[in-house]
Each structure stands twice: as C-alpha cells, then as structure tokens.
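Model: Ready when you are.
Researcher: Fold this.
Model:
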Amino acid sequence: MRYDVLILGGGISGLTLGYSLLQEGVDVCVLEASARPGGTIWSERKEGFLIEHGPNTALLTKQAHLDLFQSLGLRERLAFASETANHRFILKDRRLIELPMSLRAFLKTPLFSAKAKVRVALEPFHGRAAQEETLAEFVKRRLGQEFLDYAIDPFVSGVYAGDPETLSVREAFSKLYGLEARYGGLVLGTFLGVRERKKRPDVAKVKARLFSFLGGMVELPLALASHLGNGLVLKAAAHGLRPLRDGFEVSFRQQGVEQTIASKRLVLSVPAYEASRLLKGLNASLAQKLQAIPYPPVAQVALGYRLNAFERSPEGFGFLIPKREGRSILGALFSSSFLPGRASEGFALLTTFVGGMRAPSLALLEANGLADLAHKEVSDILRIKEEPTFAHVGKIERAIPQYTLGHGEMIKAIEALEHSLPGLHFLANYRGGIALGDCLANAVDLSAKILRQRSSRPV
C-alpha cells in the first residue's frame, strides 16, 4: 500500500488534517492504534446525564471553525454556552468569589487585597527578564505573589492541569510573554495593542463563544471519521518507521498481523511519548526530548444531584481552587448550568477534576475513592445536603502535555528534523497550543502547507 500522505494518530489533529486533505483530493490514510477515533475526546450519556471524558467545551475563535462544522454537517448541532458561563468563581477561605472581568469589578473584588491591587497597578514599572522564566517567576516579577496565587495558579490548573512553577511563560503563554517582549509590560501592551488586535481576523478568547455539541464533544471526531471512511484505519499500532528515497515506510500491527505502508509524506500526530518511541532509531536526541515532556494524569468525576439538594442552585461556569487553599480537587464545572441537555429536568451535573501536576497520585485512586473524595469536596464548598444520585469516574493517565522550561529548544529540534527530511511533519498538541481550537487551526494550516508543497514540487 502506498499513499500520498500517511498520518499516524487519529486524534482531533490527525482527523482534521486527514479530512482537510481528502476534501482537496489528496490520497490520504490515517492510522489509529485504538479502537475508536478522537483521542481523549469521548462523550456518553448515562442515566440521563451527558458526561465528557476529555475536553468539555471549546472556544469559537475562528470563522474557519464554523466553516469546518458546516462542511461536516455539524453547524446545527452546535450547543453554545448560556450567558451564565460568564460567571466564574475562585475559592478563597472556603468562599466562592466571582472572578472580576472588568476594571471596576477588580477594584471592588475581595479576591485580592488592597496591597495586591496596588502591586498590579505598579506593573508597568517593572523591567524585562534577562532569561527564560517560568510562568510563576514572570507573574511574581510583574504582578506579585497574591495575583499568582489567586488568579494565575487556579487558571493554570484549569487549562493545563499544570503548575506555574514549571511551565515556560514564553512557550505556554506566548501572548502574555509577547506583551512584555513587544510593549515592555502587560498593562501597556493591553492598551497599546488594541489597534493591532482589531486587525486580526480571530475573535479574542475573552470575547469568543464557548461551545460544545448537542451530543457532546464526541460529535466532532465522529463526523470527521465518518467522512474519512476507509481512509481511517483503527486498531493499527505503528511501531517503526524509516525514510525511503522518495518518502517513508511505516511498520504497524493490526489484529496481530504485521504490515507495512509507504507514503510520500508522513505526519506524526501522536502524543510526544509515542513519537519518541517511533523516532528512537531516526533521531535519538529528539526522541529523548519528546519522552521528557510531562503528561500528568487527570481524573474527571461526574456527579449528578437533585437540584433541591443544594442550598443554592449552582449557577455559572464553575469554580477553580488555588493550590494554597489545600483542597484535594482542582475545581468543578457546573456543566448543566450553562450547556443544554447535560442533565434531566430537576437534576444538576457537576464535573470535578482531580490530579494534574498538583496531585498526580490522587488521579490514580480507584473509582469509588475518587467519587467519594469529589463529593466530599464539592458538598462542603457548595453546601450540598444529599448524596449524589449518579457518579461516574473517567481517567486519562497521560492527559495534557506540559510546556516546561526548555520546551522551545525541543520545538527547534523538531523544525530542524522537518527541514532535513522534507515530507516529515509533526502535528500534535505539544506543539502550537493544547486547546481544541489550536489543534483545529494547526491541522488546517498544515493541510495548506502540504497542498502548497504538492503544487510546487514533488517530495
């Protein structure tokens, strides 16, 4: 078998790339080791509750996203978050405090002390760093410890399941880093960059609409897989690759049978640790760098309650918990509060997160223990008077790649290998952003790049 483009990995990045190329008439094949497409994206309905095993929502920041959904027949399946999702909370001293989203709200909020607010106001007077910093170092230098503790730390645990003490600000939060690099500071950059941001076609994340699908996020990978048809091969675990004079050959195993497949172009759209395994014989140095990327475990605990079990019905997007609060969970989403169809009438669905870089061992507890732990925490915080009527635990033992210090050097090594082996491409969420929207955008961009290469010269 020989294809023009072979994609290893049927997660959302690989599926989107495969679909985009197929739409342009490219002979493409996607190999996926597991029995279903979509990677960590999976949704299922149980006992009247719609639960997610991977991402619960995404942000609609590009018109290209809508165009993709339209072409897949998913435009009418979109489920947008209600206005209540604009209300997000941080736990401080056992009290949920709404995260301020305006200057006036910031000045009035009890989330930060008067001293911390003055410290933020002095941000423009702090200079640039002389070397690469962690996010924690960057924030403490520019905004102070309190802002790190009660704004950045919980945000990082909610997005990356990460630790600001280890994430690289330049790689993990490039736009934040760019404000200092270009304008000298965050406050100046926010004001001086208004005109530039207005010229961008993308919707700013703070203004973008939050969405899922009526049947959960799984609708997207299933639609992509359906359009790929026989171009998607499941239960096909690649275990070796080698360059050829005019392309690449990949060895894989499917249902115990050894096979090989050749292609002009090869895309590695698998997690870093899988890419490392495949590259050991080709580039040992890069393989070692990829293997070193941390992927902390995360457990999602879905808990269903009767609405009258709450002293006050959970309204809003949910809450995050700073590390210094000493809790066993990272936070929780009020899933049925802002998305339709997540719970039957008269019930509420909470989605609680455990583990990450903060407490990886907790994510590996057995299911009953995780459910009990999550209920104990949310019932104390939200004053829930009853046991849950429903509980479901989902675990991802290797969840979200961490962009730690030195991540940029690994990206340069990837670029160097791509340059030395034209036709080889890397497409995964350890490169170019971890969010679902980033994965979609990066896949579309790579599709355009491959099409340009095909039209200009053969590989």
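Researcher: Now this one.
Model:
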Amino acid sequence: MDIKDGRTVKGVNFIQLRDAGDPVELAKIYSDEGADELVFLDITATVDKRKTLAELVTKVAKSINIPFTVGGGISTVEDVKVLLNAGADKISINSAAVKHPEVINEMALEFGSQCIVVAIDTRNVDGIDFVHTHGGRIPTLLKTQGWAREVCERGAGEILLTSMDHDGTKSGFANEITSEISSMLSIPVIASGGAGNMKHFKDVFTFGKADAALAASIFHFKEIPIPNLKAYLAAEEVAIRI
C-alpha cells in the first residue's frame, strides 16, 4: 500500500498517481481475505522531509492480524522505536540507507535483523541496474546488485526489490534481476512491480526465485481476489500459505 497524504494511491512507473481508497479499510479487507503480510509505504515522507504518520500506522495495526511493515522517512533508531510502538512489526528503509549505510547496522543491532527491511527501487539504464531514492525520483550511481549484497552484509533481514520499469505496468515482474539477487543472497527477497495476472506470480516464484511477491493495483481495484490467487498458486504446485 503506497500512502500519500493519508490516502492509498497507485501509479505507473512511480508517477501518475490515482486514489485507491482509505488505507485502514483496505488493510482490513486484505487481512480478512488472507494476505500474508501488509506493506505500508508513505511514498512522499522522504521527499516532504516528514515522518510517516504514526497515528495512521496505529489505526491500521489495530485493524489487521497479519505482519505489518512500515516505511517512509525513516532515518534513525528513534524513528524505528516510534513505529514499532505504533504497531509495526517491521520497518522498511531506502533513502536513509543509501545516504548513511551504517544506519542498517545500527538498526539491525538495536532491533534484530528480522525487523529491518531494506527497500531497493531499481531502474535499468543502458543495460545497467541502478538504485533510485526519494520515491524513485533521484537516481544514484549505486549498482543494484552490489548494493543488495552490501545491505545483506550490513544486517538487513529482507530486501524489498521494486522494478521501476515494471511498476504499475501489469506486464509481469522483473524476473531476471529478481532471480539474480535472490540467488546470490542468504536473505529473503520480496519482488515488487509489474503484477498483472495470476501467472505473473507463478513466474516470479519459479523463474524469479522470489521468496514473496508484492502487488497493489490488482488488489486495490479488485482485479484479482487474494483467495483465488492463492488457490491458483497451490494448484500450480507453488508453496503457498492457504
């Protein structure tokens, strides 16, 4: 769930955002329908130089009974404490980790690696995958594969890998880079960006070797019910929690 100004939004390639509903209501629906986890990303928190709204996090946490990851504008150990106290189970960092990589070590030491997710927004430029920050707005010179290896070594417990090229396109996940990163790391990789049909999920779990798959618009706009997707994956012999 991408959040802007307290509302759920969804775009294409990180732009052209449209309203997708109330985050508390949607969170409860997804929890009731059988989603395994909920990821809540305040996509303008870093850009606007403000912190994720702890009050909204608390409301969402009270409405669900599944693991809950929160990201957006998190840059210090104190930020993490606030969000965990508000009801988050894990936190996701991106821009702050790129700017000050040692913060990954500090947070993992303080709260445990299982609590720290590093989000990587990647775009392919002339055949090379580069990390982007600030909600995908600012390109860096960091190569995605090398950065993924570094965050793992620094203590991240998971990587949330979002392909900016595939985001919102419904053309399928970025299976090649997902597989490459998943194969070289010892921590789970969550694939994000591009889900458009049920087969895309099967492909990212098989060809992409992802440990989990994140999707937004197909659920927000009721294109694929979560129970139907899980039944399909189970029938295709993909290990899934029913």
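Researcher: Key takeaway?
Model: The mean pLDDT is 90.
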